[in-house]
Amino acid sequence: MTAAPAGAPTAPGPAAEPGPDPDDSRCGGVEDLLARSAWTARIETTAADRTRMAASREVFERARERRDVYGATRGFGPLVDYPADTDPGAQGLGLIRHLAAGQGEPLAPAVTRTMVWLRLRGMTAGHSAVEPELWRSLADQWNAGFTPVVPRDGSLSASGDLVPLAHAALAATGAGEGQAAWTDPRRPGAGRERPDVVLRRLGLPGAVWDARGALAFVNGSGACLAQALHNHRELAAAVRLAAAATGRLAALLGADPDPYHDGLSRVRNQPGQRRAAALIRAELPPGHVRGAARPLQERYSLRCAPQVLGAVLDQLRFQEEVLLAEAAGCTDNPVTVDGAILHGGNFHAAPVALASESHATCAQQVALLMERQLALLLDPRANGGLPPLLAPVPGRDSGLAGVQIAASSHLSRIRQLGYPASMTTIPTNLENQDHVPLALNSATAVADMLDRLRWIAGGLLLALTQAGHLTGARPSGLWARLAEAAPPLQRDRPLAAEVAALAELALAAGT
Questions:
Q1: Do the beta carbons of residue 115 and residue 150 sit within 8 Å?
Q2: Is 151 in contact with 180 (CB distance < 8 Å)?
Q3: pTM
Q4: Catalytic residue among 70, 82, 260, 419
Q5: Which pLDDT tens digit goes with each residue over 193-245?
Q6: Among the listed ranges 65-74, 180-189, 243-252, 273-282, which one has the minimum average pLDDT value?
Q7: Residue 260 is among the residues annotated as catalytic for this protein
Q8: CB 358 within 8 A of CB 315
Q9: Structural element, H or E, at residue 342
């Protein structure tokens, strides 16, 4: 035998599990940030925070005595050439009142809670010139669980998320003026009440806004960022679920395990792919080999799953850096820095818009993969001799035909929703806002995409469960719980509830 020349590639050795992987999206980062804005969390200031906030306010007060300051001595937006109201309270209320023009369904209560937390956290950096007493009032409301009802439609995310944040600010006053707060935001289907009623029940006063405090609160990327952070976590969970489903599908069909071999991914040199392959391998039984009847090369939805899911994991790693940097920064205007007051455009949410548009692309990739795997499992040309559409008695029964039809519709809608919102910019506000990112539009579109991704995932999980019943495979762990939740098909039955339930069960298990 001739020895291979030095440096020549060699065949991969036995599969080796990769070590601790920074691409595991459950570790730190977004997950930790969302935990700090969850229902049981509290937000407080340190002595250093209070010192910074007081110093920022002092810079602001000195500056407006000797020069014009946007929103304090001058009007807002294109009205900056006109003098502001001499009463800072009236100026602040006018700002949030005229911006309370949102429409549509509300942001999820958990997203709203994160949104307010982000604004409060940003103020503690000591660049926003907010009165510490106002911060304390808002923090007390947040700590007590007060959660405004905030419509999600109407933001340009250009001068911050002005419209949704204004609804939150107006509700925080307790004056109402058509606003609402959630009665018990932690409960699905929570009702709504007037903000003054909720604040009175909590024993808290309404916030008293001045011009600077109101502008600092609404001039930020809190809404689009909060929604993007929640989307990020859900998309990461969807990737883990897709990897688990891929492994289960390969196991049921006896598919070749080589595409998931660590050596294969190691030589590709993409960290996300290596992580995805490990997640898929975790679902293969010990000693799994290719079945005699299976092709050497499976369809790409099976064979290339590590490459697809790995690419998404890498994108999530990149976008997490962007989102966490935005959360740690100050997105107000103007800001105090090094003893001076600076006017600029930190409120422009382009970083969040592009992150959300990446989320949209990734969500479509995961949805497409799972929809194609569902199609493979229902196709008698590829499912290893199982009946078409997994029908108990084909002809008499139609099996999962309706589930697949619905999944195809969901994928189509995902693709419609995935068009980049930043490419639909419309100059407005007397041309003052002539370049806008529409980041909240992108983030809420991704949230809608993720709903449909869950439904596609539920359809695939139902098909995997029924295939397991038909093959007599002995499930364990998650797959045993899914099999119990979706008994074998004996005759056609409505499956909508099972599709939704299986997806929620699997995601709740933290696959």
A1: yes
A2: no
A3: 0.93
A4: 70
A5: 999 999 999 999 999 999 999 999 999 999 999 999 999 999 999 999 999 99
A6: 180-189
A7: no
A8: yes
A9: strand 340-342
